[in-house]
Amino acid sequence: MAIDAWRDRRCLAARLANARTLWLASDFDGTLVPIKDHPVAVRASLPAREVLSRLAATAGVRLGVLSGRRLSDLVRTLGVRGVFLSGLGGLETRRPGRRVRRHVPARRRLDPALRQRLEAWVSGFAGAWLEDKDLCWAVHDRAVEPRRRARLRAGVLRRLRAPRVRARWIVGWRVIEVMPDVDVDKGVALRGWLGPQRGGRLCVYLGDDANDRPALAEVRARGGVAVGVGGLRAPYALPGPARVLRFLDWLARGWERSRRS
After folding, report:
1. Lowest-pLDDT range, 29-43, 70-84, 115-129, 145-159?
2. C-alpha distances in angstroms, 169 versus 31, 90, 180, 228, 246?
3. Of 4, 27, 73, 141, catalytic
4. pLDDT grade for 54, boundaries at 50, 70 and 90
5. 27 given a catalytic annotation
6. How far is Cα 221 from Cα 201, in angstroms, rounded to an integer?
7. By the number of CB atoms within 10 A of the CB, which of 1, 14, 83, 232 ranks highest?
């Protein structure tokens, strides 16, 4: 059974006090901000931007945000500087002050003909739509009638499993992420950012959906704090974005307090 991260603050405070650096990373939609019917309607709230900016500017803290959004979209919706960013589930990354890196060779990009087949199928379901993110796609079914959702998803997966299709996919909450067939995910992106294991470093990751599992596993392997949000299974748990922001504010204050003692 997962431990409530908020209620376990005393134990976590001891870990903060014993760490020399804090490497904190989080998913965006569903973790830092509530999920909405359409991604374009989402923007980080003022309290979210304030606590993230505070963490990014704190000595000894490194901050990362890993999202399924495009990096350009993530920059717009997040509005915080000095942060390591990963977009498209790890396919794009950018370190502070550096250029964007894309981790998909041209020969491994998704086939436009597959997108056309998926769009033709999705168009038959009211409320469903395919989001083309260039390097990957997302089939959204949040607004589809529940009784038709299973048929929609079965048809999408049937097309993805067809012979000669080179793609991988992640079935998440009200979305199927369609990715190029490359060995890249949020766990790989997080590992690249963290670098080799070092003593005195406390790693924390928070995420709410299936594509966050590799990043949570990476943090667990490093002996860090893996927090599942909104029911995603992990050693620690938080119920949703409101509690996540409260927890991050506590982390910021706890880190600053431990440096003064």
Report:
1. 29-43
2. 21, 13, 8, 21, 33
3. 27
4. very high
5. yes
6. 13
7. 232
